[in-house]
Amino acid sequence: MGVDARLRAVVGLAQAMAAAHLPRDSVRAAARGARLAMDGSFAAISAWERERGRLRVLVNEGERRDGEEEFPDDESYPVHDFPEITEFLHDRWAGGGCPHAWVESAVGDRPGRRGEVLRRRGRGTCVVAPIVLSGRAWGELYVARDEGLPDFDEDDAEFATVLAAVVAAGLAQNERLEEARTLAFTDPLTGLANRRAVDMRLDEALEEHRAKGAVVSLVVCDLNGLKTVNDTLGHAMGDRLLERFGSVLSLCGAMLPGALVARLGGDEFCLVSVGPTADEVVRVTEELCLRAAELELGEGVACGVASTGDDIGPVKSSRRLFRLADAAQYKAKAARLPKPVVAGRDTAVMRLADAPPAGSGERRRFRGR
């Protein structure tokens, strides 16, 4: 495709998105426009749901295979299977660069699952372009060609980068329409869920626990060293640490199906899991501690775990679960432990959680206890 044809394709994509009346129509127009512009066989647009740690497919367009619906109800993939999307913001353009698409091949040797997926679905190559909104990785544009067709090359990747920017501009308009809802349940800095979303999820989860015996687990995290980063390097670097840890938490949360990850405020984060066993949650939290210790900023994280799958007694409210996880996290932080402390497996934690409130010195005043 020549330069003029590509320019017309870009204009056509932008016009089609602008003419769409519904968000669904807009993403379909974006995927179709990108597929046609790149002479692809198939295109998809996926959104990174940080609070779930998953890439959710919004639309599949073109020559679909079995199991690929145009608008899937819940076709999503844990981001730890496709970790590039979690790394782009921090490693590729945090220093002033720009997002850039890349090419994957069914016969390539790059790590990850994309080559495997191409082979399974009879496709030869694909281009993956990060979609960036407001300086944050929002999701990705994916365009593939069937086996036997010419492979995508670096020029195609450059063009896909331009198309992803056009798609981002169109999606931004839809995003503004959802802004009120997003602000109500999302932390604006990290893109994770906020405290309001956590309270709602925990209330629902404990109802499920009482009705069906579902295991409900809460991980409370306190990011170490944020004040030092703010004082020595400035608040912009402190915000970068919060964002980076939020991405790591999202990545680890994806290892627990259906988990919700959130920033409670300041340097405090949490993870809510419903279904997986307490041992599974502890293993993921141990992985979180290891990854947090490897961040270029900060001093790791202190984590406390409270799960109905452990011997913690009756949990009648989310307040009780929070108090247990808080007490476990407090002990981890005080002892500067490199791994989580688990309520129910540590008798000192249970005593701390059951102690009377400390009045004005109470640690978690924002939780009203």
Commentary on this structure:
By secondary structure, the chain is α+β, with helices and mostly antiparallel strands. 45% of the residues lie in helices and 21% in strands. The protein has 12 helices and 11 strands. Strand 5 and strand 6 (136-146) form a beta hairpin. It is elongated. It starts with a helix and ends in a 15-residue tail after the last helix. Residues 360-369 have low confidence and may be disordered.
Keywords:
single chain, 369 residues, alpha+beta, 6-stranded antiparallel beta sheet, 5-stranded mixed beta sheet, 45% helix, elongated, disordered C terminus
Largest sheet: 6 strands, antiparallel
Uncertain runs are 360-369
Average of pLDDT: 86
Number of strands: 11
Structural class: alpha+beta
Would you spell out the secondary-structure blueprint of this structure?
Layout: H1 3-19, H2 23-37, E1 42-49, E2 54-62, E3 76-78, H3 84-92, E4 102-105, H4 114-120, E5 123-133, E6 136-146, H5 154-177, H6 179-185, H7 195-212, E7 216-223, H8 226-233, H9 235-253, E8 260-265, E9 268-274, H10 278-293, E10 301-307, H11 318-334, E11 341-342, H12 347-354
Parallel strand pairs: 10-11
Antiparallel strand pairs: 1-2, 1-6, 2-3, 4-5, 5-6, 7-9, 7-10, 8-9
Helix pairs in contact: 1-2, 1-5, 2-5, 8-9, 9-10, 11-12
